[in-house]
């Protein structure tokens, strides 16, 4: 029985490592391209366009007059990959983002000069910023879909009360 449990456990570890390797093997994006997280593995057309530079995302935020969700990640981070696979692929999170926010993904590998100005203590970090350039909310570490929905609702509430 113990041998069977060890084999099953190894199978789970290998399958999780394979899933994470899929994100690591993705080609690197230039800072002006748009990253996308599809809602399902087989889905071709994603609903969220992710800016990979703060400047382009902030410009869209000002143009549309909507807040920004700034997701700060790094390549060798299992919790960042878990958020990419779970949280950002959740349909309800995607719906909230698509309608009411500009999504921006930053990483030290692609945005070192921008992130040099921001003190990041943990990966992943999620920030909510307003078009004027002020950060109004933040969360460190892995955020499951329900926690992200709560953060997005909280941000909308803060923004409505500011007006």
Automatic annotation (TrEMBL):
Keyword vocabulary terms for this entry: Signal
What InterPro entries does this protein map onto?
AGR/TXD, Thioredoxin-like_sf
Signal peptide range equals 1-21
What's the superkingdom here? Bacteria
Enumerate the Pfam families for this protein: Thioredoxin_7
Q: What is this protein called?
A: Uncharacterized protein
Annotated source species = Rubripirellula lacrimiformis
């Amino acid at each position: 029985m113990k041998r069977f449990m060890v084999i099953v456990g190894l199978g789970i570890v290998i399958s999780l490592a394979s899933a994470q390797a899929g994100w690591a093997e993705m080609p690197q994006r230039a800072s002006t391209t748009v990253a996308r997280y599809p809602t399902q593995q087989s889905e071709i057309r994603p609903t969220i366009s992710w800016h990979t530079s703060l400047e382009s995302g902030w410009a869209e935020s000002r143009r549309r007059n909507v807040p920004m969700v700034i997701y700060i990640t790094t390549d060798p981070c299992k919790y960042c990959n878990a958020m990419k696979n779970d949280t950002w692929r959740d349909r309800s999170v995607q719906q909230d983002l698509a309608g009411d926010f500009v999504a921006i993904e930053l990483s030290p590998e692609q945005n070192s000069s921008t992130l040099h100005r921001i003190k990041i203590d943990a990966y992943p970090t999620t920030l909510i910023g307003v078009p004027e350039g002020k950060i109004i909310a933040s969360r460190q570490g892995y955020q499951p879909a329900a926690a992200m929905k709560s953060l997005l609702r909280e941000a909308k509430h803060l923004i409505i009360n500011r007006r």
